[in-house]
Amino acid sequence: MRSLTTLSAVRIRRPGRLMAEGAALLVAAVVAFPLYWMALSAFKPAGEVQSSHPRPWTVSPSLDSFRRVFAQQDFGRYFLNSLIVAGSVVLLSALIAFLAATAVTRFRFRFRTTLLIMFLVAQMVPVEALTIPLFFLMRDLGQLNTLGSLILPHLAFSLPFAIWMLRGFVKGVPVALEEAAALDGASRTRFLWQILFPLVFPGLVATSVFSFISGWNDFLFARSFIISDTSQSTLPMALLVFFKPDENDWGGIMAASTVMTVPVLVFFVLVQRRLVAGMGGALK
Fold first, then answer.
1. Distance (Å) of CA 32 to CA 3, 142, 206, 209
2. What is the pLDDT of residues 41-91, one digit of tens each?
3. CB contact set of 102 (below 8 Å; sequence gap of 6+)
């Protein structure tokens, strides 16, 4: 009798599960379709890219668009600049956010709650509204036409989210563990880096993904702060080469966009396991 009841429950849940899986596949297809079309257009010859009757496949794949992209002057320099900006934002935001999250979680001081609320308020301010004030700030600091003008703003915008997210990880580490380490003779610094840091490392990976994407895909700050020295430009700025007054090179645009997407996908694949663990820890 019990087995029949269990079997009927499984049969009742089965249609709902199939509907949920079908809905998930549909959402995944909708999200992945623009990426597929971008990569497909990058491999299409010029005649197919600008055809008035586009097809979701190509008869004769071509690498001409990629050749035009890599033939652009200083393309490798732009790629390196993007890596420097994104890598610097990831490393600095992870280090500062870890220390700040530990401070607001483990220590009691005045205006601690106000500081945490300000972290959320900082996320509500549109980036576009701060571009002009940041321009004058970078000018006064002498950072215009340098990679520092791209690293500092992204670092400032990524820190509130990273600190708020890591706060949950640090809070999840029992205080008794720190007390036990102190009884064993471990200093606070040793506990911080040898015990606490490995425990919250999945959270650092989760925040680093958002920091990397923010720094890698930046166009607004690069367009606003890199004015005259094009050697300090990043990959998003390289796309402007293919926007021409008479006719846009859509094949080159799609090929350059595909090249820009590959490092993000590689970075995500490398950290996906720890990213899932990090998101689960943040929810907990």
1. 42, 42, 21, 19
2. 888 887 777 777 777 777 778 888 888 888 887 888 888 999 999 999 999
3. 170, 192, 196
Close Cβ partners of 249 (under 8 Å, ≥ 6 residues apart): 65, 68, 242, 243
Report pLDDT for 13: 53
Q: Are 260 and 85 in contact (CB under 8 A)?
A: no
Give the distance from CA 188 to its chain's centroid: 32
Mean pLDDT in residue range 172-185: 82
The pLDDT of residue 72: 81
Max avg pLDDT among 44-53, 116-125, 150-159: 150-159
DSSP letters spanning the chain = -HHHHHHHHHHHHHHHHHHHHHHHHHHHHHHHHHHHHHHHHHHS-HHHHT-SS--SS-SS---HHHHHHHTSTTHHHHHHHHHHHHHHHHHHHHHHHHHHHHHHHH---TTHHHHHHHHHHHHHS-TGGGHHHHHHHHHHHT-TTSTHHHHHHHHHHHHHHHHHHHHHHHHHS-HHHHHHHHHTT--HHHHIIIIIHHHHHHHHHHHHHHHHHHHHS--HHHHHH--S-GGG--HHHHGGGG--SS---HHHHHHHHHHHHHHHHHHHHHHHHHHHHHHHHHH-
